[in-house]
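User: Fold this one for me? It's ABC transporter substrate-binding protein.
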Amino acid sequence: MPASLTRRSFHVLAAASGVALVAVPALRAQPKLEKPRLSIAVGGKAAFYYLPLTIAEQLGYFRDEGLSVEIADFAGGARALQAVVGGSADVCSGAFEHTINLQAKSQLFQSFVLQGRAPQIAMGVSTRNLPQYQGVADLRGKRIGVSAPGSSTNMVANLVLSRAGLKAADVSYVGVGVAAGALTALRSGQIDAISNTDPVMTMLEQKGDVKIISDTRTLKGTQEVFGGPMPAACLYAPAEFVQKNPNTCQALAHAIVHALKWLQTAGPGDIIKAVPEAYLLGDRALYLASFDKVRESISPDGLVPAEGPKTALNAIASFDTQVKPERIDLDKLYTNDFARRAKDRFKA
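Assistant: Here's what I get for ABC transporter substrate-binding protein.
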């Protein structure tokens, strides 16, 4: 073999080696997921309350981040929380206020990306069972349907009752879910009032089945009920999980914020194509009407508003004597670090 060819081969190999040496650090810079396979527990996935989670799943955003996510759907947020506390799920897609209730019991859980900036929960009374309804006091001794006892729908109902001088013990709570079962329970007369999310509440409202007495489906309504911004659906997990799996939590935040970004410009047709047919509850037009009503309550960027945790704490402490505000460390309830990086990446 000629010497010149040998030298040329050497230089080609050297150049190739140089490229390899440059490329390897770049590959190593990609964060390794500590837990690429994980489970998320959610209470009532069909509700608009958790629409960002559904969009992230349906459009493959979790997969794009290298995650294999199993979503376990429960009847309500309280049951989803139990799954995470019990260890059968890694992360909860649930109400922000659950982190407060948990910390009050000396269990540190942390929210790391927000899905909703308003609870999207409305409370209404049955026009069939309570046609002469005059005020909240009329609910004494009545049956109130909630997604599940201990859920955020239960929390809103407790708040409405407490402001009228009633206690949770003055009524009977019935778990009805957030889909067809909730519609049936109200329309068949099994419950006298209902605290629930959309699309259920809009469907009942537009058919004249309920009279709305409290509404947090809009930012204005949320301000009136809670007196400030109220963080709602979020991804939260044990603080230890967040600390040990930062890359995994970042990937989850990326997927959710990607979904939030998509929802900012999605049209009715896009929504219909993205969600499972069963979510429409047999009425596409009413489903879309419901979406229009709650659209502004979906977080635009995944960030928990600065005053949000305090608003949530004040609301819960107003009716739950076990929650002592002075013992709650608001800064430990959440972190915006992951959502902020996701916001920057997706320009949300």
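One thing worth pointing out: Confidence is low (pLDDT under 50) at residues 1-28.
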